[in-house]
Amino acid sequence: MVNIILASKSKVRKDILEKNNILCIVEPSNVDEDPVKESLIKEGATPEIISKNLAELKANKVSQKNNDNLVLGADSVIDLEGMLISKPENRNEALNILKRLNGKDHFLISSVCISKNGSMVWNYTDKAILTMKKMSEKSLKDYLSKISDEDLYAYNVYQIEGEGRKLFSKIEGDEDTIMGLPIKKIKEYLIK
Question: Which of 4, 25, 144, 191 is most open to solvent, judged by the fewest CB atoms within 10 Å of its CB?
Answer without folding.
Answer: 191
